[in-house]
Amino acid sequence: GGNGSYLFRLDREGYLSLRGDLGFAVYGTESERVPLSSTIGGRIQVRVSTSNYVVPFTIGPQLMYPKGSIRPYVNAGYGGQVFYTQSHVGGDDDTSFEFSNTTNQSDHTQTWVVGGGLYIPVYEGRTRVRLDLGAQYFTGGRAQYLRPGSIEDLPNSQIRINALESDTHMVLVRIGVNIGV
Questions:
Q1: How many angstroms separate the CA atoms of 134 and 124, rounded?
Q2: pTM of the predicted model, to two decimals?
């Protein structure tokens, strides 16, 4: 997965900022080789792959101690989490492309987030580059989601979806780069 953040400074020194976060993560995949069609038999094989995704997004304040070489920060925010599962069909070799997909399940919920970390300088020129070591805890609400094995293939091209439902708490650990002026 990946995560991006944007900081809008609310004071000149950088003690207080408005922070926006957007992430994307795959939390499970499965794949199987099957015939393209029962009418043509097994001569043409395709790969059916299913992936489970979560997309967290938040906005809120960040406090940072802007002096010294190592700069600790804490943040909090409010936002949401989107969970969805997609299946797609592609060729059976590594050079083939995807030619059909379906969203099997999707849901969303609200979330509160608290976090913190350290900015460690890498380059202090006109554009500053810092290592960002941090973590955030998401107190997600209840949502329905799938995991590998939640979609069961039935006869006559039917499927059964066995969705899970629970609170969607998660911890996001970040090792990244902060680029700014």
A1: 20
A2: 0.87
